[in-house]
What we know:
By secondary structure, the chain is an alpha/beta fold. It has helices spanning about 10-20, 50, 65-70, 130-140, 150-165, 180-195, 285-300, 370-395; strands at about 5, 30-35, 75, 80-85, 90, 95-100, 100-105, 110, 120-125, 145-150, 165-170, 200-205, 205-210, 215-220, 225-230, 230-235, 240, 255-260, 270, 275-280, 315-320, 320-330, 335-345, 345-360, 360-370.
Amino acid sequence: xxxxxxxxxxxxxxHAARELRAQGFDGRLVIVGDEPHRPYDRPPLSKDFxxxxxxEDRLALTDAEETAxxxxxxLLGVRARGLDARGRTVLxxxxxxxxxxxxxxxxxxxxxxxxGPDLVGVHTLRTLxxxxxxRAELTRGPRRVVVVGGGFIGAETASSCAALGHGVTxxxxxxxxxxxxxxxxxxxxxxxxxxxxxxxxxTGASVAAxxxxxxxxxxxxxxxRTLPADVVVVGIGAAPNTAWLAGSPLVLNDGVVCDDGCVTxxxxxxxxxxxxxxxxxxxxxxxxxxxxxxxxxxNLLAGRxxxxxxxxxxxxxxxxxARIQFAGRRLAGDTVRVAEGGLTDGAPDGDGxxxxxxxxGRTTAVLAVDRPRPFxxxxxxxxxxxxxxxxxxxVRPATP
Length: 400
């Protein structure tokens, strides 16, 4: 393999480039990115960067020394518009082409937007440029902020806005925020964090319309209520960036469909990060973006799947001064038990809590709020059990 193109100058793209060099690839390496920026860390955008505790230099994921060591060609500020798999070529928006023996798809996802007029004061928070614009607006004095969506980005943004002294309302269509991820019992605990942080939480309602002529002035809800707003932050999820792959042989279904090793329907193409649907699931988490490239690159260089990228899912979130950590795979019907700590007025006590999700007498997932050490022990237990299950699967005789 003489040339590899990494499409996406993101966290997962950078890790793929690192793995290519670490695993012995010494050929031409081309990294394509639609943003003009070098790879940067996205989690702080909704937290320390938004509140002014971290500047842009703290976001950089690489430095000049590492960049030189990667010996890569960086094509930044240009989008990929197609993949000619037969000719093994990545087509770029500016007319250039990148011939490649192997391709790593790391194009991530884009924030979903509300339909309606393009009003000043309506923001998404996905990119550095998004965060710059929102941070500038939040420094202009007290604002009435409406956050649409109570997922992790919405909750973290609401927390940051509240910390800056703005009046904040979170609108969530579900009865509770984060129910799909945490289940109703622990989602109620996170709702308690909003209340404790002074944020108003409106559930069971969606946005019917945004009001304003040039700038947004109010958010009209499906239940007839109208919320005054100077700033609206839309956090209703993200869509994988796969449009550029339309017409290629790759299978697309809420992401690029891959096997357990991040290998697509073409052995010379792998996908990692937010855009990759690995083994039937797409995970928009920092740990997936950093862990998947190791297996993906090994399989790309081997020309077939020799390594699995499936690990125990893990994510974290910082909200209202609390660190939330979750690991495992929760399924509907799991019981939830608070194993350590407790609740006061529906929110975690001052020393936090540790909750275990259980099924058939075993732990399937664990959630912690401000209990990092017990959480890490439980996470290691889950990882050991998963590894034992994989080993048992490998030695299990095939059914005749």
